[in-house]
Amino acid sequence: MKRHLNDGRMPVAYRRYRFPSLYGEPQQPEVTPEEEQAEYRQSLEQGYRDGLEQGQAAGLEQGRSEGLKLGMEQGIEQGREQSLVQLRELQQSLADELRQWQSSADQQWQQLSLSALHRQREQLCELVEQVARRVIRAELTLNPGQVLAIVEEALAGIDARTQELQLFVNPDDRARLKEIGITECQGWALHEDAALAPGDCRIETETLTLEALTEERLQKGMARVVHSLDAADEPA
């Protein structure tokens, strides 16, 4: 119900007037002020509820959007951190494998180097031994007096008081010595023994047998060569 002011500035009440229908329709019953007030309050309450519902819906939608955005951002950040962790683990694993491979490669290279060095040393020793044998053979052939020098060296280890003694040499050596007029050494006759190699000699007495073998002398010389090569490989 609305109120207006009259000239005396006092509020005046009025009621809504409804015009009769022009088409003979039944006239609606006149609405009382109480009904208007109830209708007005109902409209306000409905408007409040509608606004509240709309506000809640808008708030839920905004909250959902913000939550979704926040969740996506958190998910992206979490995924990025997990990717970084996995990348660091992969890098560490690759670095470890690379170090292991390098260590293994170094060990294999060292083994190969040592093996090659040993093989070269063996080949060098074999070459030295072959050359030494040829030199000895050539020296004994061209200079038979070398055999006599070997026999004299062996006799130096015999007691000078020895009364009985026999000297044995290789048949070829004896023949070459005989060609140059040598058939004895220090008064002892030279005898042949086919079991002796060129350059060998054997001395027999009543109490001992002494042999001077070319092979033994050669092997002692080769041992000194190997020792020299080993010393050259040692770190300074």
Please describe what this structure looks like.
InterPro entries: Flag_FliH, Flagellar_FliH/T3SS_HrpE, T3SS_Stator/FliH. Residues 21-43 are annotated as: Disordered. It is found in: Cytoplasm. Needed for flagellar regrowth and assembly. This protein is α+β, with helices and mostly antiparallel strands and 236 residues long. It has helices at residues 33-142, 145-155, 171-179, 214-233, and strands at residues 3-5, 11-13, 165-169, 184-185, 188-192, 201-205, 209-212. The strands form two sheets. A five-stranded mixed β-sheet has the order 4-5-3-6-7. Strands 1-2 form a two-stranded antiparallel sheet. α1 (33-142) packs antiparallel against α4 (214-233).
Summary tags:
alpha+beta, 5-stranded mixed sheet, two-stranded antiparallel ribbon, 7 strands, rod-shaped, disordered N terminus
Topology (SSEs and partners):
Blueprint: E1 3-5, E2 11-13, H1 33-142, H2 145-155, E3 165-169, H3 171-179, E4 184-185, E5 188-192, E6 201-205, E7 209-212, H4 214-233
Parallel strand pairs: 3-5
Antiparallel strand pairs: 1-2, 3-6, 4-5, 6-7
Helix pairs in contact: 1-4
Describe the main β-sheet briefly: 5 strands, mixed
What is the H-and-E element order?
EEHHEHEEEEH
Give me the count of strands.
Answer: 7
The proportion of strand residues reads: 5-15%
| Helical/strand content category | alpha+beta
The span between the termini is 121 Å
What is the radius of gyration computed over CA atoms, rounded to a whole number of angstroms?
A: 64 Å
- Spatial order of the strands in the main sheet? 4-5-3-6-7
* Low-confidence sequence ranges: 1-7
Note the overall shape.
rod-shaped
By DSSP (H or I, 4+ residues per run), the number of helices equals: 4
Estimate percent helicity. 55-70%
Mean pLDDT: 76
Region (Disordered): 21-43
Organism: Oceanimonas baumannii
Pfam family, one: FliH
Keywords: Bacterial flagellum biogenesis, Bacterial flagellum protein export, Cell projection, Cilium, Cytoplasm, Flagellum, Protein transport, Transport
